[in-house]
Every structure is written in C-alpha cells, then in structure tokens.
Amino acid sequence: VQLQASGGGLVQAGGSLRLSCAASGRTFSTYYMGWFRQAPGKEREFLAAINWSGGSTDYADSVKGRFTISRDNAKNSVYLQMNSLKPEDTAVYYCAAARWLTGWGTKSGHEPNRYEYWGQGTQVTVSS
C-alpha cells in the first residue's frame, strides 16, 4: 500500500489542523493505521492508531484529548484532527500502515517498526 500525507502547515498556538492520509490499493480496510511525528533531533514518536474498522483507537498520553484519529474506508483515507496545538507539536507528521499489529494499546504496539508502510510526511509548524 502507498500512503500520501497532506494537510500540514503553519498555525498559531491554540489553533487546529486536520491531516489527511490517502492510501492506494483495494485492501486499505484491512490495515491498522497510525500517525507518528518526528521533530529535529528526536526519535519518531507514536501519536495515534486506529484498527481496520475504526471501532478501536489508541493514543499517546501526550496528545490524548487534543488529537482525534479517524478513517473512511470508502475513501481509503485516515485523518488526524489536531486541536489546541502547542509549539512543541512542531514536527514532520507521518501516517503508517500495518497489516498485523501486535501489542495493541501497549508501549510495544507504539513502536515504529510495527508498521510496514509509511507516507512521505507533512510538516506542521506551530508558532507561539
């Protein structure tokens, strides 16, 4: 599956952005989807994940209550609604796909190497 992330940009602190990730292929609905971010000099960080049906979600503590992941299998797309953005949210944001995801809801399941396919990333910059 090929992934294309979009929707990044420059926003003031307290603002909102909605990221989108469009996937190719007919099997999108069978993949777990996740969002990660990576700031300069830092490791790639798990943000949120959603199961194949959209019925179960998982969030990092750092974004819980501010970010919402969702998916539309009819449109082969996954989204990340980001509210109450902070300057420390500045990073490149990536979407990723996993056919099988062990350790769902645990730290192990948040590891980037659990995901097989990655989008190219979209820059989010939050000004203070």
What does this protein look like?
The protein has no helices and eleven strands. It has strands at residues 3-6, 9-12, 17-23, 32-38, 45-50, 57-59, 67-72, 77-82, 91-98, 117-118, 122-127. The mean pLDDT is 95.
Largest sheet: 7 strands, mixed
The value of Rg in angstroms is 13 Å
Specify the helix fraction band: under 10%
Distance between the termini: 37 Å
Oligomer: single chain
| Overall spatial form | globular
> Counting H and I runs of at least 4 residues, what is the number of helices?
0
- What is the arithmetic mean of pLDDT? 95
> Topology as H/E string?
EEEEEEEEEEE
What structural category arises from helix and sheet content? mainly beta
- The proportion of strand residues reads over 45%
Strand count: 11
Instruction: Note poorly predicted spans.
Output: none
